[in-house]
Amino acid sequence: LGYVGLPLAVAIARAGFPVFGFDVEAQKVESLNNGQSYIEAVTSTALASEVASGRFRATADFAELAVCDVIIICVPTPLTKHREPDLSFVRNTAGTIAKRLRLGQLIVLESTTYPGTTDDVIKPILEKTGLLSKIDFFLGFSPEREDPGNRSFEVATIPKVVAGDGIEAGTLVQAFYQGVVKTVVPVST
């Protein structure tokens, strides 16, 4: 849970949704579950409030993905030496999700990347399970909207651009984010 995922997770919890925050680093998981934030945009007070409410819990147990209705991918996409996004974290995360994918889940990519990543990278990995996007599960995209260094930044006040793989997925992505942020801007894929 980094500078994109943690503020988003806390905003979703603050909006009343139960949130599992997934991270591979046990030390981060422990800190978060103790209400200690390591991200400037999230105060420990705000985090501790959501932990105490039971709406937010960090975990390194990716088996818990199976119980999630909405899964948001917020992983790094550093640039390669050719100045292209390194999608290895996106691919690995999609593979991890695929192992627990179930009917009706909504998977949303928030990582910074180029247009087409959801369809060309994530969708094929998830569909290798035999489940199909638009039929068995739903895919969406909503680019991260962070403002690093801005102390007055709040996830809920930044307009959120959303799209889905098909009409139903678009509707689901829009409905979900409308419960979290003030302004949602749906676009077509």
CATH architecture of the largest domain: 3-Layer(aba) Sandwich
Q: Note the run of SSEs as H and E.
A: HEHHEEHEHEEHE
- Percent of residues in β-strands: 5-15%
Rg, rounded, reads 16 Å
Q: What is the CATH topology descriptor of the largest domain?
A: Rossmann fold
The proportion of residues forming helix, as a percent range, comes to 25-40%
Task: Walk me through the structure.
There is one protein chain. This protein is an alpha/beta fold. The protein folds into two domains: 60 residues, no CATH class; 129 residues, Rossmann fold. Helices cover 33% and strands 15% of the residues. It is built from six helices and seven strands. A five-stranded mixed beta sheet has the order 3-4-5-6-7, with helices on both faces. The chain has a two-stranded parallel ribbon with strand order 1-2. Strand 6, helix 6 and strand 7 form a beta-alpha-beta unit. Helix 4 packs parallel to helix 5. It is globular, with a radius of gyration of 16 Å. It starts with a helix and ends with a strand. The model has no long low-confidence stretch (mean pLDDT 94).
